[in-house]
Amino acid sequence: MEPWISIIADVGFPVAVTFYLLHRVEGKLDQLIDTLHQLPEKIISS
């Protein structure tokens, strides 16, 4: 049981940081996709 606790302690922080960063990047990607969808309308209207 002790090796499992050590593995979780060592790997837990990097996994948590990775999920946090992926969550932030996902929001920025959604915003980028919305902007790209609006681009043709902006080009046509100008």
Walk me through what this model shows.
Pfam families: YvrJ. With 46 residues, this protein is mainly alpha-helical. The protein has one domain (14-46). Helix content is 96%, strand content 0%. It is built from one helix and no strands. It has one helix spanning 2-45. The model has no long low-confidence stretch (mean pLDDT 87).
Number of strands: 0
The main sheet comes to: none
The Cα radius of gyration reads 20 Å
SS summary, helix count: 1
Q: What overall geometry do the principal axes of the alpha carbons give?
A: rod-shaped
Outline the low-pLDDT stretches: none
Query: Ends: how far apart?
Result: 66 Å
The percentage helix is over 70%
Give the amount of beta strand, in percent.
under 5%
Mean pLDDT: 87
InterPro entries: YvrJ (IPR024419)
Pfam families: YvrJ (PF12841)
Protein name: YvrJ family protein
Organism: Halobacillus litoralis
Which SSEs are present, and which pair or pack?
Elements: H1 2-45
Write a concise keyword list for the protein shown above.
single chain; 46 residues; mainly alpha; 96% helix
In short:
This protein has 46 residues and is mainly α. It contains one helix and no strands.
